[in-house]
Amino acid sequence: CGFFFCLQPALKKLLQQGFVFILLICMALGTLFRSASTFLQVLMDPNEYDKLQTKLFPSFQRINMDILSVAAIIIGLAGLYLLKKNAILNVFHLDKKTATILGVEVEKEQKKILWAIVLLTSTTTALVGPMMFFGFMMSNLAYLLIKEYQHKWLFSVAILLGFLSLTTGQMLVERVFQLQINVSMVIELVGGLFFFYLLAKEVKR
């Protein structure tokens, strides 16, 4: 949230480039920060490094129970807010110009929606740890599976896909890999491949 707040002065220019551009920047910065974090961890004592590495990887066995109730409230409120914005998100699905003609304050609404997304992302990160590609993968899978512009249905499908993906991933980690790897590794591998698939698909258009 703090990092996103620092981006506010440049947010107007970023929004003009579109959400895809912002997503790519965020993913690149996330990779950069993770690489820098890994480099600093290597300089640490090996025992301390192992302890920290265990805490940094997302895990559903080590959910932060201290903030679970607060996280549930934040996620619930942010989710309801996005559902309330269903009509505006549907208009955004057309294009920016059409949304403006229909009376939507595009930049103002985009900022509000981005803040809701940032709150959801930061809350889930604090709860279980960082998970790259997961939200990106679920949202794009929802768009691919249902040819529907109404976001209330897209949200429902994305949530269902997320639940099924996490459940399947956790089951594979526990039953097949015997907890030798983390569920985030499976998600990031599949998510990375899916990301390159979408890039290749866009290049062919």
Automatic annotation (TrEMBL):
Belongs to the binding-protein-dependent transport system permease family. FecCD subfamily. One of its GO terms (cellular component) is plasma membrane. It is a multi-pass membrane protein. Gene3D superfamilies: ABC transporter involved in vitamin B12 uptake, BtuC (1.10.3470.10). Its main location: membrane. GO terms for biological process: siderophore-iron import into cell. It comes from Streptococcus anginosus. InterPro entries: ABC_BtuC-like (IPR037294), ABC_transptr_permease_BtuC (IPR000522). It is found in: Cell membrane. Coiled coil: none annotated. The chain crosses the membrane at residues 19-43, 63-83, 113-146, 153-173, 179-200. It comes from the Bacteria. This is Iron chelate uptake ABC transporter family permease subunit. Keywords: Cell membrane, Membrane, Transmembrane, Transmembrane helix, Transport. GO terms for molecular function: transmembrane transporter activity.
